[in-house]
Specification:
The chain is an alpha/beta fold. It is built from 12 helices and 17 strands.
């Protein structure tokens, strides 16, 4: 749910190293957009543009003020090879569908980051020959879409593969060097202790290669979490891991730390409400953390019919909400104020026509209807010469104004 082969040769990789910046600038020119501030890329929620009933990003932007989207996921081809695809099936080189989504977002003054990896599928770091070849594959994505930001989502099963993680971290370092100003986030699994053994090994690999991204983000869900308190505790523990691994002080570690949550019901049945998101947002901002994001915008809407948290869906949150409630927390993290939704106008009721006027001399039986003092009334039983009045024990039932 969270993350629902011929490699380029060494010569091509060397060419990338020499010409990466030129390629990026050409891509930026075709992208027809200026970079947003890093805070927006740090706040970009995940969006699957081709799966899980993709919502209209323009509608989300209008409703929330959101400007940045984290598009997911770039994988190796299902049939093998070291070339980038969307979800293992749609080649980036021939893509027009995702490009159209990006054009829509940029046309409204926004921008995108692209996420690579995720849960499931074959990752490029697993099949490309080395870090240079892995970077060359990702450079195709950066150049085609004119990217200013990229996310390395390193989790199962890839982060259990030492060689694959070495390729991914090495590729991230190359891309960072060859594309000045590129915002790079690294996202991995969260545990109550911060992150698990494989996450810690990934951090050690980054340290050994001398690579520092804009942030390392953990996903504190699907691991026995219970609301915001357990998530902020994990973030505190992860901060200590960053300090001990890289020799940073607490403030520096927070400045390189990120949160990636799951809105509503998680895969393992945990529930994270809007109140939980507000608590974690307050923690993130008060500690000057670098990133606050969530999985996903495809899920940022109420299920129909509402299921009260009984199932996990890729297309709705399984909690009571208005559409795009959770996106507004990303907007707040970016430093913007979500627009206030105009109140729903109360419809003017259609006047009810009045029944025949009550008569003191007439005999009425149960069910007969009359009008009296601009209200309609229904007889509860036989009555005569008893004027309609709003009393529980009287013979008349008030049916409202007419």
């Amino acid at each position: 749910m969270r993350r629902l082969r011929a490699c380029l040769g060494a010569a091509a990789a060397v060419g990338l190293t020499a010409a990466g910046t030129t390629a990026l600038m050409a891509g930026h020119a075709s992208g027809a957009t200026s970079a947003l501030g890093n805070r927006w890329y740090a706040a970009a929620p995940y969006l699957m543009p081709l799966d899980n009933d993709p919502p209209d990003p323009a509608a989300i932007m209008d409703a929330t003020g959101l400007k940045a989207f984290q598009l997911a996921f770039i994988l190796a081809p299902n049939g093998g090879g070291c070339s980038p695809t969307w979800g293992g099936t749609a080649a980036v080189s021939s893509d027009t569908a995702v490009q159209s989504v990006i054009d829509t977002i940029r046309g409204k003054g926004g921008d995108v980051s692209v996420s690579i990896g995720g849960y499931g599928g074959t990752k490029l770091g697993q099949v490309c020959s080395d870090a240079a070849a892995t970077a060359a594959a990702y450079q195709q994505v950066i150049t085609k879409y004119g990217l200013h930001a990229i996310d390395f989502d390193l989790e199962e099963p890839e982060y259990e593969n030492t060689a694959a993680i070495k390729n991914e971290i090495g590729a991230a370092k190359i891309l960072q060097q060859n594309n000045p100003g590129l915002y790079v986030s690294v996202t991995t699994a969260g545990t109550a202790d911060g992150t698990g053994w494989f996450g810690k090994q990934m951090l050690l690999e980054a340290k050994s290669q001398g690579f520092t991204p804009n942030n390392f983000s953990i996903m504190p869900f699907d691991g026995g979490f219970n609301g915001a308190a357990s998530q902020t505790s994990a973030l505190t523990n992860f901060n200590s891991i960053l300090q001990s691994t890289f020799g940073w002080d607490q403030a520096t570690a927070y400045a390189h730390e990120g949160f990636s949550g799951m809105n509503g019901r998680s895969d393992s049945g945990e529930i994270f409400t809007q109140a939980d998101f507000q608590t974690v947002l307050d923690y993130a901002t008060s500690h000057n953390m670098d990133r606050f994001t969530f999985w996903s915008l495809n899920r940022d809407r109420q299920c129909s019919p509402p299921d009260n948290g009984g199932r996990t869906s890729g297309t709705c949150s399984s909690v009571a909400q208005n559409s795009w409630d959770f996106a507004k927390y990303s907007v707040k993290f970016a430093g913007a104020t979500p627009p206030t939704s105009p109140p729903t106008p109360t419809p003017t009721p259609t006047p009810t026509s009045c029944k025949g006027a009550w008569s003191s001399s007439a005999v009425y039986t149960a069910g007969d209807e009359v009008s009296y003092n601009k209200h309609n009334w229904k007889a509860k039983w036989w009555t005569q010469n008893e004027a309609p009045a709003a009393t529980d024990w009287g013979p008349w039932q008030d049916e409202g104004a007419c």
